[in-house]
Amino acid sequence: MSWYDPIIDRVRGRPPIVSVVPLRGVIGNLGRMNRGLTIDALSPLLEAAFRPRSVTAVALVVSSPGGSPVQSELIAGRIRDLAAECDKPVVAFVEDVAASGGYWLACAADEIRVTGTSIVGSIGVISSGFGFQEAIGKLGIERRVHTAGSRKALLDPFQSERSDDVAHLKAIQGEMHERFISWVRSRRGDMLKLNDDPELLEGKFWTGTRSVALGLADGEGELRRTLRERYGARTRFRVLRRKQGLAGRIGLARSGWGSTVDGPLAGWADGMIAAVEERALWSRFGL
Q1: CA–CA separation, 231 vs 280, rounded Å?
Q2: Please, how many CA atoms are within 13 Å of residue 69, restricted to the half-sphere of its CB?
C-alpha cells in the first residue's frame, strides 16, 4: 500500500480529504427496527468512503460492544477488500469501546488509535441465557415440544440442561474463538505482547492505555488532531452516515405498524426485546 504524501496535494493546491465512517452500536440485526451494524446497511457507506479518487484515507470511528460474529467478519472483510482495491490507508479510532466484534472491526484498519479510557479487547465468544424449567413447574405449566430429530430442542431453556448439549455448544464456540484469534494474529502479528499477559486472547479487556502497551492498539489519538498532524492542517473530513427515514427515527421502522399479520404492538415488543439485549451488551463494559 502506498501511503499518501501530503506534499503532492499541497503542490496541486488540493486539500487532503479523509472519509469518516462511524461504526457505532451493536453488530448484527436488532429486531425489526434493525439499528445494528450489518454488511447490508454499511456496504453503501463503505463504497462511498473508499471509491472517490479524491479521498486520501479512510477513518473508522469504532464504538461497539460486539454482537454477531458473522456480521463482524463480513464487514471487516469488505473493509479490507476495498482498502486493497482502492489503495487507501485505513485508520480506526476507538471511542468508548471496541470489544469482541467491535475489536474485530477495529482490526480491519491498518492502524488502531484509542483514547486512554477506551475499553479494548474481549477476544472471545459468549453465549448466555436462563433456565425456566423449575419456574414453569411451580406455575403448573406443562411444556410440550415435538421434534423430528433427537437434538432439535438442544439447549431449550424450559428443559434441564444436558452436559452433551453444553459440550456441543462449547465446541462451536471454540471454533469461532479460534477464527477470531486467527484474524487478530493476522492483523496485529508481532505487535501482540502475549508474554506480558498470557490471557491476551482469552476474553479479557483493558483500558486504551493498557491496550497500547499490550499491542492491541498502536497509540492514543483523537481523529481530527491525529490526521491533521499527518496530512496537514487543511485536511477535510467527509463524515458518511446511514440514511434513516422518519419511521426509523421514531422507532417504527420495519415494525409491522398497521400490519394485519403482526398487529401494531408486535413491532414495539420486538423493539423492546432488542433494546434490552443491546443494553446488556453495553453494560458488560460499564457503559
Answers
A1: 39
A2: 17
Longest dimension (CA), the chain: 80
The candidate with the shortest Cα–Cα distance to 221, out of 76, 230, 50, is 230
Alpha carbon of residue 139 to chain centroid: 40
Cell numbers given for 246: 422518519
Cell of 183: 484474524
Q: In the chain, at which residue ranges do the beta strands (DSSP E only) sit?
A: 17-24, 55-64, 90-99, 111-114, 119-121, 205-207, 219-220, 236-239
- Grouping H, G, I as helix, E, B as strand and the rest as coil, residue 85 is helix
Which of 6, 30, 31 minimizes the C-alpha distance to 18?
6
Please give the angle made by the CA atoms of 226, 3 and 63, to the nearest 5 degrees.
45
Q: Cell 462451536 sits at which residue?
A: 172
Q: What is the pTM of this model?
A: 0.78
Residue 216 DSSP SS3:
coil
Q: What are phi and psi of 166, to 5 degrees?
A: -65, -40
Per-residue pLDDT, 188: 95
Find where cell 483523537 sits. Answer: 222
Taking CB atoms within 8 Å and a gap of at least 24, the contacts of 190-196 are 191/215, 191/218, 192/216
Which CA distances in Å does 245 have to 79, 163, 249? 26, 47, 6
What percentage of the chain has pLDDT greater than the value 70? 68
DSSP letters of 243-270?
---HHHHTT-TTS-TT-TTT-HHHHHHH
* Residues 6 or more apart in contact with residue 175 via CB below 8 angstroms: none
